[in-house]
Predict the structure.
Amino acid sequence: MPRAPLTETEEARTRERLCDAALELYREHGQEAVTFRRLAEALGTSHTRPYRYFEDKDALMAELRLRCFRAFADVIRGSDPGGHDPAARLRSIHAGIMRYVHDHPAEYRLMFSLRQPPLDTYPALLTARRTAFDYLVDVVQQAVDQGRITGDARTIVHVAWGAVHGVLSLHAADQLVHGRTLAQLTTPILYTVLGPLFDDAGAGGAHIRRATG
Amino acid sequence: MPRAPLTETEEARTRERLCDAALELYREHGQEAVTFRRLAEALGTSHTRPYRYFEDKDALMAELRLRCFRAFADVIRGSDPGGHDPAARLRSIHAGIMRYVHDHPAEYRLMFSLRQPPLDTYPALLTARRTAFDYLVDVVQQAVDQGRITGDARTIVHVAWGAVHGVLSLHAADQLVHGRTLAQLTTPILYTVLGPLFDDAGAGGAHIRRATG
DNA sequence: TCGTTAATTTAACTTTGTTAATTTAACGAC
DNA sequence: GTCGTTAAATTAACAAAGTTAAATTAACGA
């Protein structure tokens, strides 16, 4: 006799519509434009309906970040040619990431913004993040296994990622006024941080070279 | 016959008190705790008094960031031993910066948060930022002049700074769970990015080495 | 003492997050 | 088909915050 609760797919569908609208607001008009009221307006419903689908606004924002991290992991996986040449794989993945961040600065900002509730508030976020990270660790581990570089793969990725992330976050914050593409800026970083791995192909691309004179 | 306007020092003094209170709120309770009403409460005045001293809240936040950038520049200058050895100078400056960021993550977050009004809204901010940056460029230029490395000093600093900034921002966002000190993480980055400059002293400290086997 | 004007406060409005009360709507029982 | 039950959705309402305008206070010189 009771009214039937929402189907799981119905609920998921509405959540999806809310997330899509929220992400568009974020992209188009920035963080402060993402309000439940505007979301509701975009969906043509009342401004409290989102509370049926998200605990509160923080939960919505966490869900957005989660989606971004998953998309990011997909980009990494999708730009990996696979095979037995870790250097080639990393080059391709690097290019893919640069393309993604260049095309989606808002998403990058969302993922790596410094002002966020503690990460452990939303464990799924940590998991998604780690999934992307671990993929890179696996590729680097391949290089280590082949004896092309030495060290702890996780630490290597941490350092390399951090190094590239610096430039990316400056880009995402629109604080880079360089007349270069992202990849032009990050490639030398990658090549220097992972130098030995790219000795054959790329060291010549680095901006910083030992003085020859 | 009119009432005398505020002295410049009186005005500066109140602005200072407002900034101090705001920074403390930011440090202790985060971004969302910085409100004019709480500021006023801290100063024991009405919640609209700050409007006499700052155009709006964005202006206050910009002033905070400005102060942080100036303090940051002071840290750089203050930890520079000077002299004719650019490698030694950079090592010392690097250590100083790491200490500062370790001790003041909130300030770092404030300076480099990805969510901010466009930089050019507050030209003084750009100037302060550039002052700190240019100091580093001068040091690197010294190394270039001595023929120890080659390349455009500004680009070199951009890349090196970006590389280190990646780790620092992860730290500021509390997204580093590594059991290492900041300097332990950033030193190998610096040494690899600026490798030739540190060939004598530091390359051994890098995490990433050419495989020997 | 009083008028003038800057500084400050009080009042008021808007927006937003959030909760509670109310209404709407779908389902099975009769 | 009607009706009770209950989830979903809406409406109403409140608190906190940014901001503006009106009212008040206070210092100065005539």
